[in-house]
Amino acid sequence: MKIIFFGTSFYCQPILEVIHKNFELVGIVTKKESLIEKYALKYNLSCFTPNDKKELLFTGKDLNNLKPDLAIVSDYGLIIPKEIFTIPRHQTLNIHFSKLPKFRGPSPVQYTILNGEKSAWITIILMDEGMDTGDIVFQKEVSSINTQQLTIDNETTESLYRKLFKIAAMELSQVIHDYTNNKLKPLRQLNSAATYTKSFTRQDGFISHQALDKAIKGKGAIKMERMFRALSPWPGVWTIINIPQPKRLKLLKSHIENNRLVLDEVQLEGKKPVSWKQFIEGYPDFSFLK
Questions:
Q1: For this UniProt entry, what's an example GO CC term (predicted)?
Q2: Which of 3, 65, 241, 276 is 20 to 30 A off residue 13, Cα-Cα?
């Protein structure tokens, strides 16, 4: 089984390793200077690093010459045109971390945490030209990991991504085998039930002093604590304080106590992370920018 892998982030390396171990990995498509490119160089694998859709289309001839049976997409970063995802004999499967059609788009894990979902999901779809609209090949609820209960309320985006990729990697070989042997029948998504996510910018992590004060007093505390975890590590949660000059203060960790938000760890612009208690002791006269 000849497979091409599309992926970029370090999170998706377990997927790449499973494909490399269990199938004939004939090519990798990733971004320049990524850990995935380094992996390809380490094992002398064919690797393509297009910067945009135009360059990706240009690789079509080379990808076609590899005569792939299947392509797997996992956290790649570019929109893959039809001319590319239809090259393999069995076309292309895309790994997505939500119960599609819920949370389509670039940030399903962040929305899982923000919405206070009780479990996470892995969905593998047959890629089409829409945004995560392809037919569902495989879908699994993730409520435990290695017999241990998965508690979304304890997870950050980074920690949950790592766990979901590991589980997806464990399932992938069987999914590929069953799909390519017609043992899995792709099911159409119910488009009327679709919800969508967005990409986050640094500004999305800003918290006003009014909102922070309310959460500390108990209003909106649970929602804000989820925000801390969902936006970790990117874009992070932050506010502006005066000491006396305006400075960005990163709000790194928090917890809920008696329905109130309690700050645990912060990082002043240009400084190392410290506990909230240490920060107050070091800057007793600070004030929030109003």
A1: cytosol
A2: 65
Cα pseudo-dihedral 176, 177, 182, 186, rounded to 10? -30
Assess contact for 108 and 148: CB atoms under 8 A.
no
Asked whether the predicted pLDDT for residue 148 surpasses 70, the reply is no
What pLDDT, in 10s, does the model give residues 167-197?
A: 999 999 999 999 999 999 999 999 999 999 9
Can you give the pLDDT at residue 100? Answer: 98
Beta-carbon count within 10 A of 74 CB: 26
- CA separation for the pair 148, 170 (Å, rounded): 16
CATH of 2-193, picked from 3.30.300.210, 2.170.190.11, 2.30.130.40, 3.40.50.170, is 3.40.50.170
Tokens 């599309």 correspond to 6
Shortest CA distance to 265 belongs to which of 215, 229, 223, 290? 229
Q: What is the DSSP letter of 119?
A: S
Q: What is d(CA 200, CA 223) in angstroms, rounded to the nearest whole number?
A: 17
Cα distance between residue 6 and residue 30, in whole Å: 6
What letter represents residue 142's amino acid? V
Alpha-carbon span 162 to 154, nearest angstrom: 14
Residue 26 phi/psi, 5-degree rounding, is: -95, -15
d(CA 120, CA 141): 6
| Residue given tokens 């790994």 in the structure block | 95
Element (H, E) at 100: none
- pLDDT category at 244 given cuts 50, 70, 90 is confident
- Which residue's entry shows tokens 């497979």? 3
d(CA 5, CA 227): 32
Q: Express each pLDDT in 70-80 by its tens digit.
A: 999 999 999 99
